[in-house]
C-alpha cells in the first residue's frame, strides 16, 4: 500500500474535523423559522494560461500571504458563513486563518487606504471548530456559522491567510471590486500594511456567502455572461444589473446571487466551463434559490471567427434551443421557476480592439431569431425582454446611446439599472403571482 503524503494526511484530518463539526451542527436545535439562503456569489472559473487574450490579474501562487476581499450581500441576517472554492485545483490549499468584518466604505483610515475594516467589527471564522482548514482539490469549503449581524445590501470584508505555497487555479476573474494581496497574516489588521501589498479585481478562492435569516427567505439566481458579471459597470460601485435587482428585491426578503462569468457560453467552454456543466453547482445547489434568470448565448453566437475561436463555426439555432431547454428541465426538476432573457443589441461591438469582428450581420440574425424563440417558444415560465429595453428604436440592432458603456456590447451603469427595472417582480417568483398557462413577456417597450 502506498503511504500518504503529509499534505494528504492533513487534508484527511481536516475533512474528518469538518464532518464532526457538520454533524454537531445538524444535531443542534434550530427554530423552524430560521434558514440559510445564498446572499452573494462569485462563480468559480479555472485560471487560464499566461498566453490567453486577457491577463488573469492574479499571481500563479500565493505563499505566506493574506487575501482580503469585499462583497456586498443582498439579504442580511444574524449569522453568516463563507464558501471557499478549489474547484479547478489539482493540489490541496491550506487556510491558516480567516476573518470577516465590516469594511470601511471609504477605504480610508488615518490616511491609509485599501481594505480598512471598522473597529470592533472583526469576527474569527472557523471550519469544523478549527481556525485552520484544507480545501481539497476539486472541492469547496464551507465555514462554520459566524455570529455577525449584517444588514441587507451591506458589505462584508472577508480575509484569509495562506501560510504555505498555494497554486491559484480557481478564481473569479471579473469581480468589479478591488481586493488586496498582502504579505503575512493580516487577517486581523484594521488597516493593511503597505509593504508587500498589491491589488486585484479578480476574486481568488472566495465563491459565496450564505446568510441565516430569521424567517425563511428566497433567492433568485442569475446565470449569464459578462453583461451579467458587470464587465463595464463602475468599479467598486455595485452597479451591475443584478445589484440593482437586489435593491428592488431586498424589501421583499428575496436575495439575488450573480452567477455571471465574463466570456461564459451556453454550449461551449469559454472563460469558464459551459453553463450546462456549471448549472448544478452555481444555481441548483445554492440554498434558498427558487427562481433562475437565464441570460446566455451572445458569446456562443459571436465568438466563432474572432481571436477567441478563429476556426469555430456558429452553433445551430436548434442546438441553442436544446441547450436552453435542458437548463429549463433541470430547473423544473428541482422546483425552480425558469425565466428567460432576450439578448441585447450589439452592432458595432468592441471597436478598435482585436475583437472588432465580434459583430456580423449573420450573427445578429441568429440573435434575433433566438430572441423570437425565447419570447414565443414557450420553454420558459416567463421572459424578460432586455432587447426591447435597451435597443435604439431607430436602429434596433444597436444599443441605445444612453444605455451603452461605449463598447456597443455591454451596458453602462444606466443600462444596468434599466435592465433591473425591466424585470416584473410578480412574474419572477411563483409566490407573487399564480402560475400562468403560457409564459409572460416582461417588456418596457413595444416588441
UniProtKB/TrEMBL annotation:
Biased composition (Basic and acidic residues): 404-416
Protein name: Lipase
Annotated SUPFAM superfamilies: SGNH hydrolase (SSF52266)
Pfam families cross-referenced by the UniProt entry: Lipase_GDSL (PF00657)
Keyword terms: Signal
Molecular function per GO: hydrolase activity, acting on ester bonds
UniProt lineage: Bacteria, Pseudomonadati, Pseudomonadota, Gammaproteobacteria, Lysobacterales
Region feature (Disordered): 394-416
Signal peptide bounds: 1-32
Organism: Stenotrophomonas terrae
